[in-house]
Design a protein that fits this description.
Number of helices: 1
Number of strands: 25
CATH superfamily: AttH-like domain
Structural class: mainly beta
CATH class: Mainly Beta
Shape: globular
Strand content: over 45%
Radius of gyration: 19 Å
CATH topology: AttH-like fold
Helix content: under 10%
């Protein structure tokens, strides 16, 4: 059964801060207005979560940044992974209470930025798309992400209840170019071989949640291919965040997917199937993070690797892909 496609701008919330039923569905463009999360009444303090996560994969490095405000804290992170040596440079900060963090009400509506001890992050709209900047000990990067005007994304409003809901924009296969500096040495983020992925999130979350997320970007058979897969956190809501992007066109997968993997042996192949998709990820690195502050805790296993598989389109065609850089993750948050 297909979920409703949203084709006109709509507010995520009603004036009383509850979920607007008209916003529930999915879209190919980020047309849901989330300003009411922070300006309306009944803000449900402690449950409102807002973030920008960007990941860029180059032939030599993986770099990422997170700017987030989870109501009672600002949680930020930047990391760089060197693919040849396996070395990682990472810096994380949890700021209690949340301060020195700025997030626009809507995607592209202004600059997102964060400051913490020895960490500065910024995401700025520019004519091409977005400019990503990070600075922390030993590392700085400055990357321009190009957002093709006619390229689809996958925007979804997931309804757990009238007071718990999430708006997510997953944007994959975005061309990226810029520079990465490590200990004074400059590394190119080469145009034509570097790809960015965005996770833009705005919503009101339950305390205890688990999710899977898989993403990939690259070129196969002369076509630009993007992979966007999710699981667990959308179960039972009637919505999914699953799709395959080919040359800017999104094939939405409405079915729930089956994820098979063993996080205790992360080097084993991940299998994801359903809705015409048969895909595998062969990992080469696990970015593992653990935080336990008692009532607040987080566990993340983000396995980077190569995606391969097939997707059967609704019209009977078959899309085949192999060796697409990306990741699959298993996350559990108590927040």
């Amino acid at each position: 059964m297909s979920a409703r496609e949203i084709t006109a701008p709509v507010s995520l919330t009603t004036p009383d801060g509850r979920l607007n039923p008209a916003a529930v569905g999915w879209a190919r463009r980020p047309m849901v207005d989330t300003a009411g999360l922070t300006t309306g009444t009944n803000r449900a303090w402690g449950r409102t979560k807002r973030w920008e996560y960007w990941n860029v994969i180059t032939p030599t490095h993986i770099l990422a940044l997170t700017i987030s405000d989870i109501d009672y804290a600002a949680v930020h992170e930047a990391f760089v992974f060197e693919r040849l040596t396996g070395r990682t440079w990472a810096k994380a900060a949890t700021v209690l209470p949340a301060r020195d963090v700025w997030l626009p009400a809507n995607l592209g509506g202004g600059r997102a930025r964060a400051r913490a001890k020895e960490l500065e992050l910024a995401v700025e709209p520019v004519p091409e798309g977005f400019r990503l900047r990070a600075s922390y000990p030993h590392v700085a990067f400055d990357v321009i992400v190009t957002r093709p005007v006619d390229q689809d994304c996958l925007a979804v409003v997931v309804p757990w209840s009238q007071t718990r809901f999430q708006y997510t924009v997953k944007d994959v296969a975005l061309p990226a170019a810029g520079t990465l500096t490590i200990d004074g040495a400059i590394h190119e983020v080469p145009a034509g071989a570097s790809w960015a992925v965005l996770d833009h999130g705005r919503g009101r979350w339950p305390y205890n949640v688990r999710w899977n997320w898989g993403a990939g970007s690259g070129v196969w058979g002369g076509h630009i291919l993007g992979i966007q897969l999710g699981g667990r956190w959308t179960d039972g809501t009637g919505q999914t965040e699953n799709g395959i992007l080919v040359d800017g066109h999104l094939y939405k997968i409405h079915e729930d997917l089956t994820w098979t993997y063993d996080i205790a042996d992360w080097r084993r192949v991940w299998h994801v199937s359903g809705g015409g998709l048969e895909a595998t990820l062969t990992p080469f690195h696990n970015r593992q993070t653990r935080t336990n502050l008692g009532l607040v805790a987080s566990r993340t296993d983000q396995c980077f690797g190569k995606w391969s598989g097939t997707y059967s389109t609704p019209r009977g065609g078959t899309i085949t892909f192999e060796g697409i850089d990306g990741w699959a993750e298993d996350v559990h948050n108590r927040w």
